[in-house]
Amino acid sequence: MQYDAAVTTTGAPMIAPSILSADFARLAEEAAAVTGSDWLHVDVMDNHFVPNLTLGEPVVKSLRAATDIPLDCHLMIDDPDRWAPGYAELGAHNVTFHVEAAGDARQTARAIRAAGAKAGLALKPGTALEDYLEVLREFDTLLVMTVEPGFGGQAFIDEMLPKIAAARAAVDSGHLRLLVEVDGGVNTETIERAAAAGADCFVAGSAVYGAADPAAAVRRLRAQAAAAS
Ligand code: DX5
Ligand code: ZN
Fold first, then answer.
1. Which partner for 50 in 76, 156, 166, 218 could form a disulfide, CB atoms 3.0-4.6 Å apart?
2. Ligand 1 test: best mutation among 124, 147, 186, most atoms within 8 Å of CB?
3. Cα separation of 121 and 84, whole Å?
4. What is the domain count for the chain?
5. Could you tell me what percent of the chain has a pLDDT over 90?
6. Which residue range(s) make up the domain with 30?
7. Is residue 67 part of a domain?
8. Ligand 1 pocket test, candidate residues 15, 19, 21, most atoms within 8 A of CB
9. In this structure, what CATH number is given to the domain that contains residue 81?
10. Single pTM value for the model
11. Which CA distances in Å does 204 have to 42, 43, 95?
């Protein structure tokens, strides 16, 4: 499905399975296992910005060739100003980087968009939305982290619900024109709360790849979010 912020912010909830919880030796098959997902979430970690190491450009390049699902690259890396546009050039659909790591977030958003991708800004749990409401006017996606970035399988931080609601309000008022995405601890127990707070797009790692039928898990999560939003 093609992503257009003006459409999807009023449309059906989007589900983005995170391959962090997939089998890294079988990524093409793991992508195929979630056919029907809106985005495939790809966590890039550098062992500097977060205390974990995952994958980088070569794997994104191969995944791009292995699946038609739009790639949602979540860069948990230092110096995204330098690295983020490269992921757009590789064909990522959306490239999100962390404001805490960025030098010039506006300029990096422009570079991502110039390379043909949507630009996303991620906020760690301790980072206030209010400080970035002007910068976010240059973004297509806001990623609200509902766990500390770095690892899958952590518990959803309920204290982030007001941040999601504030982002929703900024979109509904017309101040921002972007998709509100949540990442971390999203599962059948928590997705309704995130949806009710106003999220548009839901990243789910362990809740999808830990399920016996990942595609069915995606459908269930989407239905739950739709019922709650
Ligand atoms: C964590 C990553 C998440 C992770 C979510 O830093 O950004 O995308 O895969 O995993 P779950 O859904 O298991 O919390
Ligand atoms: Zn992520």
1. 76
2. 147
3. 11
4. 1
5. 95
6. 14-219
7. yes
8. 21
9. 3.20.20.70
10. 0.96
11. 11, 12, 17
